[in-house]
Amino acid sequence: MRARHSSHWGAFTAIMDNGRLTSVEPFEKDGHSSDLLQSIPDAVYDTSRIQAPMVRKGWLKPGREPHGRGRDAFIQVSWREALDLVAGELQLVKDTFGNEAIFGGSYGWASAGRFHHANTQLKRFLNCHGGFVNQLHTYSIAAGLTLLPRILGDHRALRALTPWSEIRNHTQLFVAFGGLGTKNAQVLSGGPGEHVLGDWLPALARAGVEVVSVSPVRDDTVDALNAEWLAPRPNTDTALMLGLAHTLVEEGLHDRAFLNRYCVGFERFERYLMGRDCGVPKSADWASNICEVPAETIRALARRMASARTMIGTAWSLQRAEHGEQPFWMTVVLGAMLGQVGLPGGGFGFGYASTNGPGNTIHKVPVPNLTSGDNPVRNHIPVARIADMLLHPGEPYDFDGESRTYPDIRLVYWCGGNPFHHHQDINRLIAAWRRPQTVIVQDPWWTATARHADIVLPATTTLERNDIGASSDDRFILAMEKAIDPVGEARNDYDIFSDLAARFGYIDSFTEGRDESEWLFHLYEVARQKSAKEGIALPDFDSFWKAGHAEKPVRTEPYNLYADFRADPNACSLKTPSGKIEIFSETIDNFGYDDCPGHPVWLEPSEWLGGDMAKRHPLHLISSQPNGRLHSQMDQGRVSRVTKIKGREPIRLHPLDAADRGIVAGDIVRVFNDRGAVLAGVILSEELRRGVVQLATGAWYDPLSTEEPNTLDKHGNPNVLTIDRGTSKLGQGPVSHTTLVEVEIYSEPLPAITAFDRPKPVAR
């Protein structure tokens, strides 16, 4: 038996034998399918699947005993009892504390399907219940999402980049801050039918596009591009950019006409740049002392950028650091100073190669999407401030110009995500996670988040239901056919919430009278009608489902980001207060933030290789996205497991850094700082600059002890080591890339990996 399906890492056909998934075949129209697909059968049947509803034993006792989360055993219960307990807690908290005491957490890549999407299903249900405290933005790019509307008016520089075709045809020099690789482009929210970078990046090379890769990791950029490698100290890109900008002004290479017509505030920024106010010019020599890229190399690059059609591409990763707003702001400033914004193949863009979508040449037509409805609760928190919220209820904080107050959360309902992967400083998160009176987790797998819950509800995977996969950045809408029956007692999120809604009397509002098949038909037809209004014809639903996919048209007309603004800055003004690019933002300046002033600046991070802390922890940790999984998803699959060393996540060290510590390839090491420690297996690589180590995100958190605080993580989750603080008062994004560590050989007997073991239920 065969079933067409999709995932965040690509479309595929599921192959079944006697009702059991045995293998997958990549979508025939995808010329560069991801190997991650091969982990799907492993994950579906892994020992980590939640087989039945479970309740933490200590939670059933008087007083709930929240401090037992992550320690207590679980009791298996029936679905009826589990849902009665969930409904009772939701009503109790609502009646006692109000809906602002309910936090709906569903951050994560839960499902490629647009109907059975855990995030949307949970929010839709909680909105029917009277609302909830929500999260704003994403861990991937929170600081950028906050900053760019302030200085560019919207998110176009993240969402509607100049496509690869224009870069191939017109760009002469591509300066890639954070690199250009294919690893992160294996994935796309909603699911890619076609992985494009495998064709586009070699095409750039054949067209003669020169690439400069600015990253502490050489293989952040694929070999096919034959890129020049500049390896600054991590978190010093802003200083390097300032050195480039200073050279442009000093040598008269900047475009004053463009700055005068299309920008505001350059004169204010120029005073800082040239040191007229503070006496410290941000020259190439100044920058070199900070970033350790030779001053002449900085000057030479500035001259090349000014003399060629230049695209500046900055990866999302740069803003996941202290003061992460600054390199994004400086990217915009550099693009403006070169005066090429809106020209074919020139300007800037954020996120090239960060997923499979940016730079694709498709028309962004409407795709099927379930709506969550209106949330009556207007309070929300920045996505990366969960621990702060739980630890500091009622306390004030700043965010994007607002003075806000953390709500007092009594119930957390988490569905389809894993904050014990995404969130920084896991030991701090554990302490915060034990503050609410009730935590409910709905998920297919026993993640660390589920293990730290009170009520655990088993949800289906995508293969156990019908759905539609689609992304506005991909040219395929994909049928996702149910392939297998639910594993154990797993149920669809939609069915779980429908049963809960029925208990409260608002099932009609939640379901609108539709079952799964009726919803799929409805959502597809709505998207089809919207596409027709834009002159794009999609097949009817029955034809689409029979074919297994529908194909959206490829853009043929030239498109360049901000070309309309360049052609007529009055008629096509930006949605900023000035209508122009805001090099100096009076709005941000008036916020009065010491960690994000009114124009881009160099601000020293609390942890970096040039600071005092480097004397104790002299290695900078890069916690990049992994090759063998998506975030923490599929860590139990074969593609991820084969990368492990003695069961531990691999860590890359420069050979000379390893030799200094008596470490050789294959050793198990303890990676540590003041926040925690993890075990990892050593790989030696000259692809790193000295002083940098690389430990990918996503190894499932696996503590040595559930009783002792700040215990060793046996598996290698880097967020045991990262800092839990905001990028600035403006963006409040995560700062995972601002982390110093030390590494030493681990000489104790290796503890067993238990992250994927299913908890054994106990009697009441």
Keywords:
764 residues, alpha/beta, Dimethylsulfoxide Reductase, domain 2, Barwin-like endoglucanases, 6-stranded mixed beta sheet, 6-stranded mixed barrel, 25 helices
Structure description:
By secondary structure, the chain is α/β, with parallel strands linked by helices. Among the domains are: 142-359 and 578-591, Dimethylsulfoxide Reductase, domain 2, CATH 3.40.228; 612-745, Barwin-like endoglucanases. Helices cover 28% and strands 17% of the residues. The chain is built from 25 helices and 29 strands. The strands form 8 sheets. Strands 5-4-19-18-17-6 form a 6-stranded mixed sheet. A 6-stranded mixed beta barrel has the order 24-28-25-27-26-29. Strand 12 (310-314), helix 13 (325-338) and strand 13 form a beta-alpha-beta unit. The radius of gyration is 26 Å and the shape is globular.
List the helices and strands and how they pair.
Blueprint: E1 2-7, E2 10-17, E3 20-26, H1 40-44, E4 54-56, E5 74-76, H2 79-97, E6 102-105, H3 118-128, E7 134-136, H4 142-152, H5 156-159, H6 164-170, E8 173-177, H7 197-206, E9 210-214, E10 228-230, H8 237-250, H9 256-262, E11 263-264, H10 266-273, H11 284-291, H12 295-307, E12 310-314, H13 325-338, E13 347-350, E14 380-382, H14 386-391, E15 396-399, E16 402-405, E17 411-415, H15 419-422, H16 426-433, E18 438-443, H17 448-451, E19 455-458, E20 467-469, E21 476-480, H18 493-504, H19 507-511, H20 516-533, H21 541-547, E22 549-551, H22 563-567, E23 581-582, H23 586-591, E24 619-622, H24 638-641, E25 650-653, H25 655-660, E26 668-673, E27 676-684, E28 692-695, E29 740-745
Parallel strand pairs: 6-17, 7-14, 8-9, 8-12, 9-10, 11-23, 12-13, 17-18, 18-19, 24-28, 25-27
Antiparallel strand pairs: 1-2, 2-3, 4-5, 4-19, 15-16, 20-21, 21-22, 24-29, 25-28, 26-27, 26-29
